[in-house]
Structures are given as C-alpha cells and as structure tokens.
Amino acid sequence: GSVTWSSSDESVAAVSSDGTVQAKSDNNTVSETVITATASNGRTAQCKVKVGIGRLVDIS
Length: 60
Prior knowledge:
Blueprint: E1 3-7, E2 13-15, E3 21-23, E4 30-39, E5 44-52, E6 55-59
Antiparallel strand pairs: 1-4, 2-3, 4-5, 5-6
C-alpha cells in the first residue's frame, strides 16, 4: 500500500513524498514539528522533529 507523508509545520521541516525530511527553520531557537505517515488503510505513525538553525536537532 501507499504512504502519505505530512509535516504539521512546513516552515520548520518539510517532508517529501518518499518520507525524506528537510529542515527549514533558520532562526536561532529550536522549533518543533510533527511528521505523520498515513498508510492507505488509514493507520498512522508520528514522530516529533526538532530543528535549529536549519539542521535536525532531535527526533523522538
């Protein structure tokens, strides 16, 4: 089945159709967004991503 990816805040990090996450935030503080994967059967999985100064800081 197929998986659809999304970010709760694309200004912090964007996610491509293949699930690749790209940090976007370039401020001096750490920002958070939630990446969600939704399967074609409706099941979902999420992870919290922290970004600071345009780079990934933490995934949980």
